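Hi support team,

I've been running sequence recovery on a batch of backbones for a student project. Most finish fine, but this one hangs at about 90% for roughly twenty minutes before it completes. I'm not sure whether the input is malformed or the queue is just slow. I've pasted the structure tokens below so you can try to reproduce it. Let me know if you need the job ID as well.

Thanks,
M.K.
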């Protein structure tokens, strides 16, 4: 068989590549010859993926609940993938920065709109029954979402807002972590006792959280933004993208989570406790969390009124029902 000049040129390039790395091209060609054709289902491990939904009860909607959260965690992984690219990039151009932030916003957009599945896609009575088999597990225990926060902004911006002015970047990461805002969501406000949900979560993930916090102590996405040249920092498209990310992650996402919680956990004149014992009414509202990844790009008034309009709408709607 006659080898075309194009194929011969490629073979020559491959030979140079493997010779330079001390490898034998012939061995790799033998491997290619014996290798099976790749199929779609093998490439994405489809059979394994579809086997990961294992309900604990016989209620059909529990499988929806499981798959929804698994899909959510995959989107979180995509967000972290883009965050790491921003943190690791050496060029730090407005175009690269903005493009990656747009990708993250698209993932959040999909997540926020997908909450319609949680709000209207399951029967409330089924949920109230099978949820009792999930104790003390809770969506509160999503470690990837905490990682998104750690990659996005310095830990002093994640300290609970009631004591945030008492901390700065000069404080140790251990002290900042001990006062991080989400721990308040699984702590009894009267006794100060941590719920089992929080104790399990800390035991499982604190070492990983602290490793990430140390790795990005001076190189979070917010640090990367602050280090940009002034003309790049003032780029309108970049600022708009960062503001959209702040709102998506710290207002729209928790707000949709609240909508789901009200749908399933609200009863007339009272509310039901979450499976993990989290004080979700106090923990979820954006105006109570007041987490802002990029405080420099917001005015003082915007920071003071953070999430208030949206949360007032939720509470007013609840009172009318």
């Amino acid at each position: 068989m006659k080898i075309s000049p194009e194929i011969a040129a490629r073979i020559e390039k491959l030979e140079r590549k493997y010779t330079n790395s001390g490898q034998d091209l012939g061995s790799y060609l033998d491997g290619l010859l014996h290798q099976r054709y790749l199929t779609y289902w093998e490439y994405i491990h489809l059979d394994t993926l579809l086997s990961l939904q294992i309900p604990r009860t016989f209620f059909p909607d529990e499988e929806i609940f499981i798959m929804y959260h698994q899909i959510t965690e995959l989107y979180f992984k995509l967000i972290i993938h883009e965050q790491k690219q921003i943190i690791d990039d050496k060029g730090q151009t407005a175009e690269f920065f903005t493009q990656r932030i747009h990708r993250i916003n698209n993932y959040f957009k999909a997540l926020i709109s997908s909450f319609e599945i949680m709000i209207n896609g399951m029967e409330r009575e089924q949920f109230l029954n099978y949820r009792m088999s999930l104790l003390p597990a809770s969506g509160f225990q999503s470690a990837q979402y905490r990682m998104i926060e750690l990659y996005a902004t310095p830990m002093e911006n994640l300290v609970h807002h009631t004591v945030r002015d008492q901390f700065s970047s000069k404080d140790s990461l251990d002290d900042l972590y001990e006062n991080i805002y989400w721990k308040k969501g699984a702590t009894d406000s009267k006794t100060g006792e941590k719920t089992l949900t929080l104790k399990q979560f800390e035991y499982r993930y604190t070492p990983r959280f602290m490793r990430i916090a140390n790795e990005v102590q001076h190189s979070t996405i917010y640090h990367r933004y602050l280090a940009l040249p002034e003309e790049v920092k003032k780029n309108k498209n970049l600022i708009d993208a960062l503001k959209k990310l702040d709102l998506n992650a710290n207002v729209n996402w928790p707000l949709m989570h609240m909508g789901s919680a009200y749908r399933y956990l609200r009863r007339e004149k009272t509310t039901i406790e979450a499976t993990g014992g989290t004080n979700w009414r106090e923990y979820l509202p954006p105006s109570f969390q007041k987490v802002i990844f990029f405080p420099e790009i917001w005015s003082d008034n915007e920071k003071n009124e953070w999430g208030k309009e949206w949360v007032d709408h939720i509470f007013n709607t609840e009172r009318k029902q």
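--
Follow-up from support: It reproduced on our side and the slowdown came from queue contention, not your input. Residues 79-310 form one domain. No action needed from you.
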